[in-house]
Amino acid sequence: GDSVTQMEGPVTLSEEAFLTINCTYTATGYPSLFWYVQYPGEGLQLLLKATKADDKGSNKGFEATYRKETTSFHLEKGSVQVSDSAVYFCALLNSGGYQKVTFGIGTKLQVIP
Amino acid sequence: DTAVSQTPKYLVTQMGNDKSIKCEQNLGHDTMYWYKQDSKKFLKIMFSYNNKELIINETVPNRFSPKSPDKAHLNLHINSLELGDSAVYFCASSPGQLSNQPQHFGDGTRLSIL
Q1: Would an 8 Å CB–CB cutoff place A107 in contact with chain B?
Q2: Fewer CB near the last or first residue (10 Å), C or N of chain B?
Q3: Which residue has the higher pLDDT, B97 or A111?
Q4: Are B97 and A99 an interchain contact pair (Cβ–Cβ within 8 Å)?
Q5: pLDDT grade, residue A112 (50/70/90)?
Q6: Would an 8 Å CB–CB cutoff place B83 in contact with chain A?
Q7: HEC profile of chain B
Q8: Lowest mean pLDDT among A26-30, A93-97, B66-70, B99-103
Q9: Share of chain A above pLDDT 70, in %
Q10: The dihedral of CA A49, A52, A58, A62: what is its sign?
């Protein structure tokens, strides 16, 4: 079945540091890939997405590139802010299914001033 | 305007009670979901409905019963609550069954069992 492997946190960074959160996946077919962000006390919000190989999703300074050859979708940001502190989820949606999204375990990011 | 809204936001109750959580979406989506998030933030799908019909039913105790009166609403009723039911429950919606569009989530219902 489909699976998403995401680095475990927590990840603690100083403000303005470079962020990478690794995500790899296993899926049949051609899934769409997503990063969601969950701020404390809130629901999940879509951060960015990519629907085919080599697509780059970007939003709010975050980027991720859909790499089919390495089955990866790593999240990056060049300079994090305290307001980026949240839990980040990598997810995939397989094209053949009933919109059943497979989520990674979530990576907690804490940015300190 | 809130796209996916859940009520209540917090629910504290005793073991053995029966409770319901309501969810409504105003996005015109065909598909709705219930997820359970445990204390370690792990997110697990429970149910999915498409146009009022059940399409995903993961291994969930039959104490949990979803009900979809119309495609804009998906409620979750839980009988005989147990300590292990303590979690955050999220409702979500998406355009349709075979779409590759992302899901939209509510803010969650924090259920605490005493």
Answers
A1: no
A2: N
A3: A111
A4: yes
A5: very high
A6: no
A7: CCCEEEECCEEEECCCCCEEEEEEECCCCCEEEEEEECCCCCEEEEEEEECCEEEEECCCCCCEEEEEEECCEEEEEECCCCHHHCEEEEEEEECCCCCCCCCEECCCEEEEEC
A8: A93-97
A9: 96
A10: positive
